[in-house]
Specification:
Structural class: alpha+beta
Helix content: 25-40%
Distance between the termini: 71 Å
Shape: globular
Number of helices: 23
Length: 705
């Protein structure tokens, strides 16, 4: 129709103050400014992947309209910019209008099969490649072979090399992860992972690149016994990620069957060359290109692994031809052979040579006659732990006039230093905990950046967490004595109450992960709430497809995608009280879905626990564990007061004496270590012993937090 715009909306999603639009078609004389009008949105994301043409008139009108749009919002972001639009960015001053380009396409060609295709670049993660004019390696989507950029890097990367790097707000990053945006790959993430659950099966959907930054710990922790990994949208499988990939498969397989779905040519190519990458997994299906012999149309289909007849995919949608042919039949045959080769698949995948030196912030330093200090004051003694995004080391702080103090340094792992969302969470954790400064909350001493690494310096706590305590007492077939359990939870609630106090702007901090591993009890009897990594201000945008927290200890509302509130933490405190006395979590089941059902639907009959659970604690626990958050305690401090009133009637409370007996063997080893360096206590010993001696001690006895 005459006058109708040929630039149309392909998709649109509104979430809070963020508006996302996918624009498709031709940017020409029919362009209408309404296509990029943000309305009352404060942040706008434009997907430009489907814009295929731009005329001079359309470009002039676009520059005017995009400038107006940028003035109306706090942030404007371009994603999946098409080659045609990238040309305009490189040639036309003001075409971006102040927008930030997060990702864009370049055309790659494959010498092996002759295919040309679009390959997505990340404006943040690939910036070093832009500056050095070295295009990142990408595999062919058709045959899996390595491809080459079909352009001059100096020309293609001209705009992004000169543009300032601006990270989008965390809310925008969260928005980009939503399925409604139709973005399989999320800017700022090498590999986007979406998780869904059905009955006893966890399904992970991968999109992006598997490389040295891939870690499977999150998958293992979140997975039900049976797992399906959908890899259809993995576009590059880099050798630097092989060991991490195989390690994840092995760990998942120990829990139950692992299925791979939608294996694309990039993964089929690597796995055919090295069947160990299939490992213990069972390949369920493949994603492969079919070509119509009549009209030469290429389409992608997902078929069961053993399907050899392409007719199973149905007729060509363009011309109706009944039979199409696989574009790469030899690759499919090789891949099927690799899947059948059990001996080759089961061999361990071993890194032949180290690809980088040990991490300077957590590795034990060799003695060279002087003390090597981080940030001029922290001497690393030994590595304590490594989690999903951070590493933890025991350090000795040095100050003026011989001052020394033990501390713990939490360091963001190198592969996440370019992940804006994780960095924001790390910084937020430090800032939130630092403002609390309360005896029952772990203290943050410092936050620093050294050689590009982020460091959080925390209080050293000499004790055990509730998980370790419950495991230590389990052989006796009992839980923690009720009086001691109630005292621990009362102190925990004082810490929660302090954390829940609103700041000057009325914002409230919620821990979100009140579980045994995050509650420390020192050998002096002091209770500390630790690890605020999931803590967040109340906000409207969250990852709806990911469970944030320990599934067995999550409140019902967390499974219902409701916002976390202080009552979420109060559920955790009540469940800890009950579980520590019983010696087990009464809601935990064999799988995460079964646990979720129990938490959502089962009502505990506290009277059924008999004398094990004193009746005086029943009303407190019942109120904490009400399925309706509005019926729980309004304030954690109120729980502490109610428990304090009951504790004298429950029995004797001497936590240091009780801990000393429970961990007597460990304390004897501490005494022996202290004597070996001429000291009378572990703390004094750690202040003077060499890093080698400290590392050796912890390697033999495990880790005190």
């Amino acid at each position: 129709m005459a006058g109708e715009s040929r630039l149309t909306l392909n998709w649109e999603l509104r979430q809070g103050e963020i508006l996302g639009r996918g624009i498709a078609g031709s940017l020409d004389e029919s362009f209408r400014a309404s296509v990029v009008d943000p309305g009352d949105a404060r942040q706008m994301v434009l997907d430009l992947s489907q814009v295929t043409h731009a005329s001079s008139f359309g470009v002039r009108e676009w520059v005017r309209a995009i400038g107006v749009a940028r003035q109306a919002v706090d942030g404007l972001f371009f994603v999946q910019v098409s080659p045609r639009i990238l040309d305009q960015l490189n040639m036309v001053v003001g075409f971006a209008g102040g927008a930030v380009v997060l990702s864009f396409y370049g055309i790659h060609v494959c010498d092996a099969c002759g295919a040309d295709e679009l390959s997505l670049y990340d404006a943040q993660l690939d910036r070093q490649a832009f500056q050095t004019l070295t295009p990142p390696l990408r595999q062919c989507r058709v045959c899996g072979s390595d491809t080459q950029l079909d352009d001059d890097p100096a020309v293609l990367f001209e705009y992004v090399r000169s543009a300032e790097v601006v990270s989008p707000p965390a809310s925008v990053v969260g928005f980009l992860r939503q399925p409604g945006t139709r973005l399989f790959e999320v800017p700022g993430l090498r590999l986007a992972v979406r998780q869904t659950m059905a009955l006893s099966m966890t399904r992970f959907q991968f999109a992006g690149i598997i490389d040295q930054g891939f870690r499977g710990r999150r998958l293992v922790d979140a997975a039900a016994p049976a797992v399906t990994i959908d890899v259809e949208h993995v576009r590059h499988f880099d050798p630097s990620g092989f060991v991490h990939w195989r390690t994840a498969l092995d760990e998942l397989a120990r829990q139950g069957p692992v299925l791979l779905a939608g294996c694309p040519p990039p993964m089929m190519k690597r796995m055919s060359e090295d069947p160990r990458l299939i490992g213990p997994a069972q390949v369920q299906s493949i994603s492969a290109p079919l070509e119509c012999p009549k009209c030469k149309t290429c389409r992608w289909v997902t078929l069961p692994l053993l399907t050899t007849d392409p007719a199973a995919a149905g007729p060509c949608a363009k011309c109706g031809e009944a039979v199409s042919a696989f574009r790469q039949p030899d690759l499919l045959a090789q891949f099927r052979d690799a899947c059948r080769n059990e001996p080759s698949r089961s061999a361990p995948l071993i890194r032949v040579s180290p690809e980088k030196p040990p991490d300077r912030d957590v590795a034990t330093k060799a003695s060279t006659g002087h003390v090597e200090l981080i940030s001029g004051k922290y001497e690393v003694l030994c590595k304590l732990a490594e989690g999903g995004m951070a590493q933890v080391a025991l350090v000795r702080q040095h100050g003026a006039m011989g001052f020394r103090r033990l501390a713990v340094i939490k360091t963001v792992r190198d592969e996440f230093l370019t992940d804006d969302r994780r960095i924001r969470l790390f910084l937020e954790e430090a800032k939130l905990v630092a403002r609390i400064d309360y005896p029952h909350v772990i203290r943050v001493y410092d936050l620093d950046r050294v050689d590009g690494s982020l460091l959080m310096v925390l209080e050293f706590v000499h004790g055990r967490n509730l998980g370790e305590i419950m495991r230590a007492i389990a052989p006796a077939g009992t839980g923690i004595p009720p009086a001691i359990a109630a005292t621990i939870v009362a102190d925990l609630c004082l810490g929660l109450g302090r954390a829940h106090q609103s700041d000057s702007s009325g914002r409230v901090l919620v821990h979100r992960d009140v579980a045994p591993g995050n509650v420390m009890v020192t050998f002096d009897g002091v209770v500390k709430l630790v690890d605020f990594g999931l803590a967040a201000w109340q906000r409207s945008v969250e990852e709806k497809d990911v469970l944030l927290g320990n599934p067995s200890w999550m409140a019902p509302e967390c499974y219902q995608e409701q916002d976390a509130t202080p009552q979420t933490d109060i559920w955790g405190a009540g469940l800890l009280l009950l579980s520590t006395i019983l010696g087990r979590n009464p809601f935990r089941r064999a799988t995460v879905p079964m646990t979720a059902v129990a938490i959502l639907r089962e009502t505990l009959q506290l009277g059924g626990y008999g004398a094990t659970l004193p009746r005086k604690l029943h009303p407190i626990i019942e109120r904490c564990l009400d399925k309706d958050p509005g019926k729980r305690y309004a304030d954690a401090v109120e729980i502490a007061a109610d428990l304090r009133a009951v504790i004298p009637k429950l029995g004797e409370v001497n936590i240091p004496s009780w801990m000393g007996k429970l961990f007597s063997a460990s304390l004897k080893r501490e005494e022996a270590f202290a004597r070996s360096v001429g000291q009378s206590s572990l703390i004094d010993a750690l202040l003077v012993a060499s890093p080698q001696a400290v590392a050796q001690y912890y390697s033999t006895i495990g880790v005190d937090h």
